[in-house]
Design a protein that fits this description.
The complex is a heterodimer of chains A (269) and B (278). Chain A is mostly helical and 269 residues long. Chain A contains eleven helices and no strands. Chain B folds into two domains: 35 residues; 207 residues, MetI-like (MetI-like fold, Orthogonal Bundle). The chains are: A mainly alpha (269), B mainly alpha (278). Chains A and B meet through helix 2, helix 3, helix 4, helix 5 and helix 6 of A and helix 1, helix 3, helix 4, helix 5 and helix 6 of B. Chain A: It is found in: Cell membrane.
């Protein structure tokens, strides 16, 4: 910059623009816009279709209002099953993630253990839980158990990775100190590693419970239990007022869960 | 936090050293116990009342092995052209959905950020619509949009966009609320219009966060758009659903491998771009 080297001449100063145009950015935005137009034509999106869709959307909304809570028994049953799936999947997922997270941490376990464990975690994370749920429905049959198993896989993919990252960030001094007293592996974990990461672990677990609850309302679409099955059935029978009731119930449940987990997190801090 | 047995100063001079230290007060111990009890009770309740059919559980390993044997080897002949085109369509849905989501999320985030928009009712309305968007899952959005637009990629694009608005808008409004007020004030003092104030005073401050959010969400949307086809909203999920319904497990496995590959490649691209951009 001229300001730091030599004092700028008056001609230089006159030529300088206060806000220089950022041409690479403008070109990139233009390219993005061009891509958007091209890709929309590829997907068959057009204004006519959108306008038609808006009309249909109005009709759909008209049929959804007012929501029909007459079959509240069915609704409650589905919600409770979703809640059970979420609780169970979180518990099993956390229980499995703890050892996996320790095994995947590169500062505690040798590379020939952490490498394969990391690969397993990456595969768990890459496959969408609905796809995993389909496979489990085939393997274990319809019902809440398949949904629970699918969400356990998803939980492992997510929190085992976070556990491993948290463990990699700990200070090794305490580990060394405990080791120097002649403690075994389990004691090192219990007295040197866990106290350093416990509060973050609890945060991850709460987050996972929250997201398992969101996801458990959905696995029913592929037959893996919970409110999703009820929702999908109502959709297929064009019971749009019941659909609206289910959606409102789901939103309320998730909103409540968000508030509760926010409270708990604030209390822990 | 510690409690001790009554310290006595009379008589024995080393009595204070024999205090019994405990980590938690009785009240704390009780509340910790209560939290654990609640957790265990929730799990026990879930295990006892969930429908577990023992016969299904018993032959699960057998069924799983059978499934894997049917899936192996993946039939590569199915890849081109069908799976390939579906994969491209999935990427288009994810990218267009992300773009469209930003078109919706930027105004909502500006409205939700309390330092940008000072009208309270607008703040609350924007926050509420962001929460509503987050609470409905992408597959449920897809169901709704399939009912509106009919089956196809259009429904997928809208589902992705409406689902990510909630997350993107929340993150963006948080980034906006963290900006410093100085540059804006300076611009306003120089007589800048509202647009110029936003563009030159606020945008440079939120730009890194913005690109980070955009990349992160594109990555998430690639994963999400892979399953939208299960409810008829286009993309590779449609092919997957077909293959499963026809029990063509070797075709299922090639689709799964394709999804896995795309998701991993997307993650690598995002990590690279992020380290170069930020």
């Amino acid at each position: 910059m001229s300001a730091t080297s030599a004092p700028p001449s008056s001609a230089d100063a006159a030529r300088r623009v206060a806000f220089a145009p950022n041409w690479p950015m403008r070109l990139a935005l233009l390219a993005l816009a061009a891509y958007a137009v091209w890709a929309s034509s590829q997907l068959g999106l057009s204004w006519g279709r959108l306008a038609h869709g808006l009309g249909e959307g109005g009709q759909l909304l008209g049929r959804m209002v007012p929501p029909n809570f007459e079959r509240w028994g069915l609704l409650l049953e589905g919600l409770l099953e979703s809640l059970q799936i979420a609780v169970l999947a979180s518990a099993v997922g956390i229980a499995l993630s703890l050892p996996l997270g320790v095994l995947a941490a590169r500062n505690l376990s040798p590379w020939w253990i952490s490498g394969p464990v990391r690969a397993v975690i990456a595969v768990c994370r890459s496959l969408h839980y609905v796809i995993v749920a389909i496979l489990f429905v085939k393997a274990i049959g319809f019902g809440a158990l398949a949904g629970t198993a699918a969400l356990v896989v998803a939980s492992i993919g997510f929190i085992a990775k976070l556990f491993a990252e948290a463990i990699e960030e700990i200070s090794m001094k305490q580990v060394e100190a405990i080791r120097a007293t002649g403690a075994g592996v389990m004691k090192v974990l219990a007295y040197a590693v866990l106290p350093q990461v416990a509060s973050r672990f609890i945060g991850f677990c709460l987050y996972q419970l929250d997201s398992n609850l969101r996801n458990s309302t959905l696995v029913g679409i592929v037959g893996a239990g919970g409110i999703g099955g009820t929702l999908f059935a109502a959709f297929k029978r064009f019971d749009y007022d019941f659909v609206a009731a289910i959606l409102l119930a789901i939103i309320a449940l998730i909103f409540l869960a968000e508030i509760i987990s926010g409270r708990v997190r604030a209390a822990l801090r | 936090m510690n409690s001790m047995t009554s310290p006595s100063f009379s008589g024995d001079p080393v009595a204070p050293l024999r205090r019994e230290w405990t980590r938690h007060t009785p009240g704390q111990r009780l509340s910790r116990f209560a939290v654990w009890l609640c957790c265990v009770a929730a799990v026990v309740w879930a295990v006892r009342s969930i429908d577990i059919i023992p016969e299904f559980l018993a032959d699960a390993p057998e069924q799983m092995a059978d499934l894997l044997i049917r899936m192996w080897p993946p039939n590569v002949a199915h890849y081109y052209p069908e799976v390939h085109h579906a994969l491209i369509e999935t990427l288009h849905i994810a990218t267009l959905g992300t773009l469209f989501c930003f078109v919706l999320a930027v105004p909502l985030a500006l409205m939700a950020a309390r330092n940008v928009c000072t009208i309270r009712p607008l703040n609350v309305a924007a926050q509420f619509s962001l929460v509503a968007s987050r609470s409905v899952n992408s597959l449920v959005w897809a169901l709704l949009f399939v009912a509106i637009f009919g089956p196809g990629a259009a429904a997928g694009v809208f589902a992705i966009a409406f689902r990510s608005v909630g997350f993107v808008g929340k993150l963006l409004s948080e980034a906006l609320e963290e900006t410093s007020h100085g540059p804006r004030e300076a611009l306003r003092a120089a007589g800048a219009s509202w647009g110029a104030e936003m563009l030159k005073g606020v945008w440079p401050q939120v730009q890194p966060a913005f690109w980070g959010i955009a990349l992160f969400h594109w990555d998430i949307n690639v994963r999400e758009s892979a399953v939208l086809g299960l409810v008829g909203a286009g993309g590779i999920g449609l092919v997957l659903d077909d293959a499963i319904n026809f029990f063509q497990w070797d075709r299922v496995s090639i689709v799964l491998l394709a999804i896995l590959a795309v998701v991993l490649v997307a993650e690598v691209i995002v990590t690279r771009l992020r380290s170069r951009l930020l």
